[in-house]
Amino acid sequence: MPSNAMRPFTFKWRSLVLLLLVVALTQASPAVAADEPDLIFRRSTVFKWVSPNDKLATYGVDDPEVDGVACHFTVPEKGGFKGWLGLAEEVSDISLACRQIGPIHFKDKMAQGDDMFRQRRSLFFKKMQIVRGCDAKRNVLVYMVYSDKLIEGSPKNSTSSVPIMPWGGGDATVQKCGEFIQ
């Protein structure tokens, strides 16, 4: 009898330890390259009676290393109880659009393919990344979004280009992105 009486107690402790581990891992996740994105809007795509709906969410994020560039991306967000609790693995369908929104100024040198933004898409193994590169021949910043998993990545991706152009009447000098790539 004592061994059966201990099972619910052991199960509760294991559940508590697992919950604390999950919270610790999500809090200790690697820092994103940019600040948290700004939610622009959400639209429901799948109605659920009791739990939250599946949605598409559009976010905006500024490039932390290049003033004058912003990106907008749309991601699916799982509803249901798993989505509500943050346990659902999100799909890899992500769209991306980046634009010049002011005079472009590079803050520092950077490498081709540096992370501009990074966000978890599942509890442990999947993350979405927006990376930045420079097409020096055309003086164009190139942004690519993709998701990867610990074991296998996803071939689903999206690319957006931002030609570096003069901005306004007083911005006669245009920086060359090739001069800021290491």
Write structural notes for this entry.
With 182 residues, the protein is α+β, with helices and mostly antiparallel strands. The chain contains 2 helices and 8 strands; from the N terminus they run αβββαβββββ. It has helices at residues 2-27, 80-85; strands at 38-46, 54-62, 66-77, 95-106, 114-120, 126-135, 140-149, 157-163. The chain is elongated, with a radius of gyration of 21 Å.
Secondary structure elements and pairings:
Layout: H1 2-27, E1 38-46, E2 54-62, E3 66-77, H2 80-85, E4 95-106, E5 114-120, E6 126-135, E7 140-149, E8 157-163
Antiparallel strand pairs: 1-2, 2-3, 3-4, 5-6, 6-7, 7-8
What's the short version?
18% of the residues lie in helices and 42% in strands. It has helices spanning 2-27, 80-85; strands spanning 38-46, 54-62, 66-77, 95-106, 114-120, 126-135, 140-149, 157-163.
Principal-axes geometry comes out as: elongated
Average pLDDT, to the nearest integer? Answer: 77
Number of strands: 8
Strand content: 35-45%
**Helix-strand pattern, N to C?**
HEEEHEEEEE
Low-confidence runs (pLDDT<50, min 5 residues)? 22-32
Instruction: Please estimate the helix content.
Output: 10-25%
- As a whole number of angstroms, the C-alpha radius of gyration is 21 Å
The number of helical runs is 2
Largest sheet: 4 strands, antiparallel
**Gap between N and C termini, in Å?**
68 Å
What spatial order of strands do you see in the largest sheet? 1-2-3-4
* Structural class category: alpha+beta
